[in-house]
ABC transporter ATP-binding protein
Amino acid sequence: MKNDYMVVAEGLVKDYGGFRAVDGVGFKINRGELFSLLGPNGAGKTTTIKMLSTLLKPTSGEAWIASYSIVREAGMVRRVIGLVPQDLTADDEMSGWDNVYIQARLYGLPPGEARERTREVLEYLDLMEAARRRVATYSGGMRRKLEIAMSLVHSPKVLFLDEPTLGLDVHSRRSLWRYIEDLKRGGVTILLTTHYMEEAEILSDRVAIIDRGRIVAEGTADELKARVKGETIYIELKDPAYIEPLTQTLRVKLGLEPSVVEGRVSLRVDRADTMLPELAKALNGFPVKSISISRATLEDVFIELTGRTLTGGEEPFDPFKYRRMIRGVR
Ligand SMILES: Nc1ncnc2c1ncn2[C@@H]1O[C@H](COP(=O)(O)OP(=O)(O)OP(=O)(O)O)[C@@H](O)[C@H]1O
């Protein structure tokens, strides 16, 4: 019954030497659906995409894309998929047009059709004006759009987007989301990886939360968030030495079970507004830096499942490293 789905993954495993990066990942994506793998750095998202797009052979497990096996029919799989990898692939010294045109020819389109498709996808992504310019002059957002144009030139049925907005500013990120939403409306089945919960929430029909090579939860964003009841109050202190006494006070005075998530005391409550007066009293004498309240987010779901945050332990964003990456300089 693989035909009902555009992507079916079953028990995918990838070992790098003795290290298991992907540990039995399985999911099914319906035709025209946008499915996200949401997880922190190192969770195994890129490795999963690489296996599905036939760039890496699974250690074990299987997957079918448009009912072609990634293990036995890799050539057919490549014809029906488009891939926007994390490490950008466009040639900096060539124009945007040439990058897309060459890609079209590599996919076997004859020259006339390749020109037509190149124009179509560049127009679609609003890159026609910059098409004759060297890619080296493009902004980060334009480069991402060019990569998407390159991945679409052969009209794939399934599109893999690996952290498509990584390192982009908020404006470029939102603009890229509109193109992705548009592609989905056009019927393309999309698998997207991200560690931005907002991105997963806004774009996806369904989300799988992945951590340490395993899918720990799957469903619509609403279904996942419904697992976490109520609201969360976060208390940040000026001096971390007070964290332990504060958690003790909250336990004793308010009967709550606080937890500490990345230096902030977090309290899960049914309703934050009615709790605040009592909380204010309990906080008297503590060096409070900030108090914030949030309704359940996908991040809370991740914290509930793993005890860590999605961005926990992430290196701070290094623009120089990112620039080197997109220029292909290692
Ligand atoms: N070629 C490799 N050799 C050894 N270990 C690897 C290799 N590629 C990835 N890993 C490890 O496998 C794990 C999963 O990596 P992967 O890149 O799939 O994660 P990810 O969720 O995509 O994170 P990121 O967004 O940072 O790429 C990580 O611990 C990573 O260090």
